[in-house]
Amino acid sequence: MNLPNKITMFRVVLIPVFVVLMLLPDIPFYNFIALTVFSIACITDFLDGYLARKYKLVTNFGKFMDPLADKVLVSTAMILLVEMGMIPGWIAATILAREFIISGFRLVAADAGIVIAASYIAKFKTVFQMFMCIFMIFTCDRDNTGWFFDFIDVLGKICMWIALALTVISLVDYIYKNREVIKDK
Predict the structure, then answer these.
(1) Domain 3-180, what fold?
(2) Residue ranges per domain, the chain?
(3) pTM (2 d.p.)
(4) Which of 83, 86, 119, 134 has the most CB atoms at less than 10 Å from its CB?
């Protein structure tokens, strides 16, 4: 359990803390506290990968757990935002379906001895998903009004549409570039 893996596990531990904070709207500024926890979790995503690559601490555990932690973090946030009426359910469903499809695709590839690395499109998708969630968590408290909150709300919606487009593009890209994985041999 090296430092990058510990950071990944810290991100996993932050997920239920984030959920509890999002479900307690009676606490003043609950969304800002939840936003802080979510943002820290997002930062750990970049930090653990950076440290693992820089210091050659890449492990099989990290290769498995890091993307899983990212998917659970972002999926959890999106589900909570759907419940709050911030994201249409069909958009969250499309994004979640892509994650399941690619995870299954990677399992089939791994069984054939093929490693499918994350593409740049997929990395950008994750960044836009995280920013979408950050902006929407920031504005989810209905008591916040004014031009600044409206501006952040628009940024969240822009990130949502970009994340959706990158979700579909990255799905097609993964399947096309790795189509030999699903061919019968």
Answers:
(1) Four Helix Bundle (Hemerythrin (Met), subunit A) (1.20.120)
(2) 3-180
(3) 0.90
(4) 86
